[in-house]
Amino acid sequence: MAVFGLLLGFLHTENLIMAVVFSGVGLILFWNKLIASRRQVTLNASSGQVTILSVSAFFKPKQCSYPLEMFGSVQSYVLQGKSPVNRVELLTKTGGEALLLALFEPANVAPSFFSFPADGENKSAERLRQEIAGQLGLLDRGFLGNRMFGVQLKDCCGCSVAKG
């Protein structure tokens, strides 16, 4: 259809190139979200492992594990941005690094574009955080409010764990 429009003079070459560039950027962003949605984290108390299942850019399965004993606490907070997210993370015993477990929509999204979201933890994030702390005997650091993410544990699968 674009070729016919170009032949008929309705579309100029510059507009067509710009449309291709914007479509390409949109496709890359969609592909990145699709790959991120395939990431799964399994906490197994009996084996003492945290297992991360993910896929590569071409959907080749990847798997890696961490010993559960390297983690000492669990926390939740809202990462601000254009699309705020409620992150639930495991923290290492030293407290220096975190491993992303799950992302949720914040509980209190801003009523308009020009206002700030309230400090609201998603109820599912709260339940997940509390259940992990209770079942695995980890310290529950609770909901920390709005903040930026800290140092993220290098994901051995090559997953982009620092994205919010």
Description:
The chain is an alpha+beta fold. Among the domains are: 2-35, no CATH class; 70-146. Helices cover 28% and strands 31% of the residues. The protein is built from 3 helices and 7 strands, in the order ααββββββαβ. The strands form 2 sheets. It has a 4-stranded mixed beta sheet with strand order 6-5-4-7, with helices on one face. Strands 1-2-3 form a 3-stranded antiparallel beta sheet. The longest helix is centred in the N-terminal third of the chain and has 25 residues, at 13-37.
Please name the defining characteristics of this protein.
164 residues; four-stranded mixed beta sheet; three-stranded antiparallel beta sheet; 3 helices; globular; disordered C terminus
Total strands: 7
SSE run: HHEEEEEEHE
Largest sheet: 4 strands, mixed
Total number of helical segments?
3
What is this structure's SSE topology?
Elements (H helix, E strand, L loop, with lengths): L1 H7 L4 H25 L2 E5 L4 E7 L5 E7 L3 E9 L5 E8 L5 E7 L18 H14 L2 E8 L18
Parallel strand pairs: 4-7
Antiparallel strand pairs: 1-2, 2-3, 4-5, 5-6
